[in-house]
Amino acid sequence: DAMVIQNPRYQVTQFGKPVTLSCSQTLNHNVMYWYQQKSSQAPKLLFHYYDKDFNNEADTPDNFQSRRPNTSFCFLDIRSPGLGDAAMYLCATSRNPAGLGSEQYFGPGTRLTVT
Amino acid sequence: AQKVTQAQTEISVVEKEDVTLDCVYETRDTTYYLFWYKQPPSGELVFLIRRNSFDEQNEISGRYSWNFQKSTSSFNFTITASQVVDSAVYFCALSEAYSGAGSYQLTFGKGTKLSVIP
Question: Judging by beta carbons within 10 Å of its beta carbon (0-12, 13-18, 19+), is residue A78 exposed, middle or buried?
């Protein structure tokens, strides 16, 4: 089945130790997104790629970076995780932007714990 | 600026009851899209429906139905004969018409947590 896959599902890292979360898709969608979701909150968009064009949301901390080496894969790098970065990280894809009516398909998420 | 309000934070119903989740939105655009997503305890958001601003037809899909009313800026979601598997957080979301980089943004409501009790 076509889908969005995230690895790992659970990640524990130490304060200040870099961590990378990965996402892959078999939907061949143009757009890939990374969201951060904290407990009992709505997902918050961090950044997105349209093909190789990268767009950072204005309030995304510099601590967060992303790479998209090809259509199928996208990575979220947290350079120096703080306790406040503990959250669920959701990857999503869509064929086109939401502003053109494209729905987004989400992966199962990676729950990040910072100790 | 666009905004989505889901006033019901948590709802509990007994299995087989009907339940309506409210969604009220604000936008200055005449062209926009509305979405509903389900997030079960496993964490993955599941797309349920998309509606564009020019299509006010109500939609029914099995036990799910959606009522879109532009006059009241509402896009409510009803589950008929609820089941335990319907227990989840439900998010309503809005996107304004494409106008560049910002058009990738979905504005989510805060979500409504639905608990269906057996």
Answer: buried
Which residue is closest to A41 within chain B, CA to CA? B110
Cβ distance B44 to A97 less than 8 Å, yes or no, reads no
State the residue for tokens 């089941």.
B83
Quick one: tokens of A2? 């076509």
B52: chain A residues, CB-CB within 8 Å: 101
Confidence of residue B78 (pLDDT cuts 50, 70, 90): very high
Q: Residue A51 is encoded by which pair of tokens?
A: 């093909």
Other residues' Cβ atoms within 10 Å of the Cβ of residue B39:
22
The residues facing B78 across adjacent strands are B20, B65
> pLDDT tens across B82-106, in order?
999 999 999 999 998 877 666 678 8
Q: Is B1 exposed, middle or buried (CB count within 10 Å of its CB: 0-12, 13-18, 19+)?
A: exposed
Q: A residues 39-98 near B, CB within 8 Å? A: 40-43, 45, 48, 50, 55, 57, 88, 90, 92, 97-98
Tokens of A80: 């120096």
